[in-house]
Amino acid sequence: MQTSTIVKTGVIAVLIMLFAGAAHAQIASDPSPFETDNSNAVVPGELFTEPPTLINLGFEWLIQGDDNRNASVAVWYREKGSTEWRDGLPLLRLNGERIYSESRVDLITPNMFAGSVLDLKPDTDYEARFIIDDPDGVIGNPERLALVRTRAEPLPYAGGRVLHVYPHGHTGEKLEPAFEGLMCAYNEWCAGTDWATSGRPRVRAGDTLVVHAGVYQYNRYEYTNNATVNRTTPLDGTYYLTADGTAERPIAIVAAGDGEVIFDGNGNYALFDVRAADYTYFEGITFRNSEIAVLAGTQFLAGSKGLSVKRSRFENVGAGVFTNYSGSSNFYIADSTFIGRNDPDHLIGWQGQIWEQFAGLDDQIFPPAMASYVAIKLYGPGHVVAHNYIADFHDGINVETYGNPDGSVASGPGIPDGPKYPPREYWDRRPVAIDFYGNYITNSHDNPIEADGSMHNIRILRNMFINHPSHAFCNQPALGGPVYWIRNIAYHLPTGSTRLTAGSAGAVFYNNTILSETNVIGASNVHWRNNLFLGERSADEIFSVTTLTSYSSSDYNGFRPNPNTDISFRWRAPASTTLVDVTNPNYEAQLESREFATLTDYAAATGQDRNSVLLDYDIFVNVPPLDARDSESLQTLYDAADLDFRLRSGSAAIDRAAVLPGITDGFTGQAPDLGALEFGAVAPIYGPRPQ
Predict the structure, then answer these.
(1) Could you tell me the CA-to-CA distances from 123 to 12, 52, 153, 206, 347 in Å, in that order?
(2) Ranges in the chain, pLDDT < 70
(3) Could you give the angle at the alpha carbon of 523 between the alpha carbons of 494 and 351, nearest 5°?
(4) Distances (CA, A) of 456 to 137, 209, 433, 524
(5) What are the residues whose beta carbons fall under 8 Å from the beta carbon of 687, sequence distance 6 or more?
């Protein structure tokens, strides 16, 4: 890994200290008091630290000035106590990008920089150093230093009480204290029917409920006080959890290890309702036969914080873990398996003519019933979704498409005017600092991951996306960014790879392997570096971009244009303005559209992709090309175990990428390689990790 030679000099004016259990963020400094008549000079303001996750840190640096957008922020970081500073990825410049869809969302980004320090150690103190530079001058202190501790992986509290839970009818030996059914252990007493909610929580922060093997299913169709039936939940069959743990002392519900633990909802709406319970921890549990397995939040109503779900299984559910409450925060969902109800044997999209031909074939229905909506849906800050296997849902992992974040107001008929960015008192409810990494997602009706409605420092890293009828890289819209798409692999996307709508701002794509066409219809401040773009004929163009800002960019990529096409590249951008007014119905008149048959012509005319190269599928060890226009293979479901996305020795993708600090560190050869997998490097784990 390359390191900076910069050493700390002078006096650091500001120190942020953010430790586990502290408030979400602390302000490094007040807005700058300095005044200047030079609007192109930069005036540094406050540095804001977002909630830390296990392996990443996010920062926002508010500024004044820099009207000509030529300021930059360099980043270095180190473990506390180390003497060596390491280069981090420079912060992304934001200012005035407008994300707009009438009556649904209207947000304008502040004058700021934002970005992340990536791939750190959990539960470790780090120093991050930032220096702002501007050829037009810096008015005030150009430097900030933050001390931040990454979050620890949630674990049950070792010093708490242990309560043993057994299924109804268990006749064997029991460990004490023993309880029949979960709610009898969780609450002071329990009964069925309309008495079930009258008990108050027995559990307290730090307790562990050890659940022994068996099926836990309440007969919600029988009204009875007969002790011969399971009577430990209300009539709706929902486990209502209402006690709070803490980050260090969660209330844990864990499998005993003596056989499978199954909670069966018997077809109910919500199996577990944790909206009134902070820091609940599940491990080793099978959730099945419910519309929502874990209901963790409802927009504008209530939601939990600090929910953990580890090494568990979800099957026959409409949704796995669900919250769209802005106050939900710091979830950790990892190493689990989510199996939806959708057709497990055919790839089929939920809309579009391409799929109509399969209606009735093998008893298929078009459009398909949305029997399973989403495996994981989240809103709020600080969530981590890592190393899960997800199959047969409409969507895999979603940030809630929330509309305007709390404290800001959309524009539209009859809607009173209001802030177009959340005021400070709402910042702890923004969807920022969210991590999705190491997930294997297959066979959706729509998208494997939707970053829709997310704001700053969304990190989507090293995921495997296979068999998705719609777009794998979905931002409709991204609300400012950066939304980082880094080292993801996407294969068999027969209607295209990337969706950016409503002026989505701040999406960046670094070192992805994207094996379908990229067609972007409306983006601001979007950037591509070090990606592989090889198509499957979802469109003629391999790379077609409509950007609403003149400073979007693309370079150091590898392309395989589709054969026998007249247009391979399209770049639509403002001809003279830096920001298009997306509220103007005729805004497309402000765009200049240019189309090209060759990479050479496209690069020469636009200045984009001047260092990019042409290549073909033979760069991979074993990845056959696909054809979205071939109905014989269109519905085939591919398995990553039968494919090998590693680069062949000597391929045209090796040593052709740009150095990106924190992303391409540790490369071998003369330069980094294109795509998700560096030649000779150990491949990531996709899906649950071995215990």
Answers:
(1) 25, 10, 8, 19, 41
(2) 1-36, 192-193, 224-231
(3) 30
(4) 27, 37, 7, 14
(5) 387, 388, 389, 438, 439, 440, 464
Tally of domains within the chain: 1
Instruction: State residue 58 phi and psi, 5-degree precision.
Output: -120, 145
pLDDT at 192: 66
The answer to whether residue 121 is domain-embedded is: yes
Query: Residue 39 belongs to a domain with what CATH number?
Result: 2.60.40.10
Question: By residue range, what is the domain housing residue 86?
Answer: 15-149
Triad 536, 541, 546: Cα angle to 5°: 125
DSSP 394-416: SEEEEE---SSPTT-----TTPP
Q: Is 97 in contact with 477 (CB distance < 8 Å)? A: no
Rounded distance between C-alpha atoms, residue 351 and residue 338, angstroms: 24
Tokens standing for residue 335: 């190493």
Calculate the CA 102 to chain-centre distance.
Answer: 25
User: Quick check: is 222 in a domain?
Assistant: no
pLDDT given for residue 32 in this prediction: 43
CA torsion 237-241-247-250 (nearest 10°) is -80
Residues 6+ apart with CB under 8 A from 456: 50, 58, 60, 114, 430, 432, 433, 480, 481, 482, 506
pTM score, whole prediction: 0.94
Give the phi and the psi of residue 186 in degrees, each rounded to 5: -70, -40
Pinpoint the alpha helices (H) of 264-398.
353-356
- Token pair belonging to 542: 């391999």
Q: What is the pLDDT of residue 20?
A: 31
Is 451 a domain residue?
Answer: no
The predicted structure's pLDDT at residue 231: 64
304 touches 326 (CB < 8 A):
no
What is the C-alpha to C-alpha distance for residues 506 and 327, in angstroms, rounded to an integer? 24
Q: What is the DSSP annotation of 357-387?
A: TTTTGGG--SSPP-S--EEEEE-SS--EEES
Q: Which tokens is 457 given?
A: 């420092």
Beta carbons of 39 and 73 less than 8 angstroms apart: no
According to the model, what pLDDT value does residue 1 have?
A: 40
Report yes or no on 85 lying in a domain: yes
In the three-class reduction of DSSP (H, G, I as helix; E, B as strand; rest coil), residue 183 is classed as helix
